Amino acid sequence: MSSAPQPPDAHAIDPNTPVLIGWHQVSRRDNDFRDACEPVELMAQAAEGTGLAAAALRLVDWIGVTEGLTRYPDPGRLVADRIGATGAHTVLAKIGVMQHSLIARACQAVQSGEATVALVVGGEAHYRHVRAGGAGHSAPVTEQPDGTTPGETLSSAEFDDNMSHPAEAAAGLAATPGYYSLIDSHWRAEHRRSPDEHRDAVAALYERFVQIAATNPHAVRTHPYSRGEIRDASPSNPMIAFPYTKLMITTWTVDQGCALVFATAATADAMGIPRSRWCFPVIAAESNHVVPVAARTRLHQPAAMRIIADAVRRHTGLEPAGADLFDLYSAFPVPALVGAEGLGISADRDLTVTGGMSFAGGPLNSYVFHAIATAAQELSDSHARSALISCVSGFYTKQAALVLSSDPPAKPFVVVDVSADVAKAEPRVPMAGNSTGDGTVVAYTVLFEDGHPERCVAVIDLLDGRRTVARNHDEQVMATAMETDLVGGPVSVAEGLFTPAPIVGSCAPVVGS
Q1: What is the pLDDT of residues 413-449, one digit of tens each?
Q2: What residues contact residue 82 under an 8 Å CB cut-off, 6+ apart?
Q3: What residues contact residue 151 under an 8 Å CB cut-off, 6+ apart?
Q4: What SS3 state is found at 17?
Q5: pLDDT tens track for 68-82
Q6: pTM across the whole model
Q7: For the purposes of burial, counting CB atoms within 10 Å of the CB of 455, is it exposed (0-12), middle (13-18) or buried (19 or more)?
Q8: Which domains does the chain have, with CATH numbers?
Q9: How many angstroms separate the CA atoms of 35 and 311, rounded?
Q10: How would you classify the pairing of strands 255-264 and 18-28?
Q11: 313's torsion region: left (phi>0), alpha (psi -120 to 50) or beta?
Q12: How far apart are the first and last CA of the chain?
């Protein structure tokens, strides 16, 4: 960050300042599922590996866990029992609550005195699950008594109610890659890139991610894929949702766990944690403006990260683009591209410290913890002084950024919600269901099944001012869509199907900025 380093003088630090004092990652790849660990064991192993002695772990009195594929009623209680923190208050963050939100809650808990030592953990054992299924078995998991509930539950009603629209489902959108590839096409067209130019650029970005993953001891994919191997479909790298091949989407078939431990500066001193292991959360800024993908004025909601960056500047005086390290959420390429642009990050900077979710691994609801742990380790081991880690939830409907520093912050840690500002900048468009009429393509993708194009799905602005989603199954239309940009082109819609209108001459795509 563009600010003068401050000496870590104990007398200059507010004793209530939150500090990240421990972190650890676990990444396993057991071929025999019987040797593998269930998610809660991965979480407990991560907690035990944070460098805190057993006696220190027993001081943990607040445990926050993100809900994952394995739906334990109260995973925090299982972790508490395993590490001896039997009296800890447990918190479960449901799907739809950003991982950053749980981190912010932990920091606030120690800052306010609600907790003395807060532990945030997450873990997935989907690789174990898949291996067991392949062997004709199910992988056992710990069961809790009926009626078990966590001490506190964080949920998002807006996420549950508004993340998707019936028109999207009617057009055949179901899996996450289809939604993100729609967002991608809108961003690409706005930046005047042809489909081929964009695929080349994304492949180059991900080639660099591969190189970074090769240095990450926890990464699940370290093969030196070339940009051509990443870009082009092949039997081992099928196209999933144009332009995204398998190597461009998150790898969630992983057995990974991560733990982060927070305390105040006073508690960290009392516990004897070396200052070299202190990392300071500076600010957590987030937008929880939930709008279905097709109903967004601009599908990639570019204002969100710009407003988050402004919040960081306003509350801390720091320049987000001046961070030494970045990890921009990369379940798909477009969140990293939009994030870099909104934060003003130079094109020559690395956008990940882990190698990204395609190569480091993307446990469903805890990858960000791994990014934070990796960044914290680099802040401890190198000359880097600051890191910015972004997060999203849903189909890029929520966004957040966390700033970490190895220097004590000039101002108290703060959590800023910019949802209202983002809602003003990114208003919702009225949606229509089964419509008939003419319109213009706003975004599109081609969805694949078993390596073959199955349908082209398009978001369309109708002439009456409403928005709809329609599909086309014609092979020639799908082939054209993957070679020539359809965004900005005229179409006719009837009974959920769209037909491109004949184009006379040439017309460059026109997309709102």
Answers
A1: 999 999 999 999 999 999 998 889 999 999 999 999 9
A2: 40, 41, 44, 47
A3: 76, 89, 90, 91
A4: coil
A5: 999 999 999 999 999
A6: 0.94
A7: buried
A8: 10-157+252-425 (3.40.47.10), 437-500 (2.40.50.840)
A9: 47
A10: antiparallel
A11: alpha
A12: 29
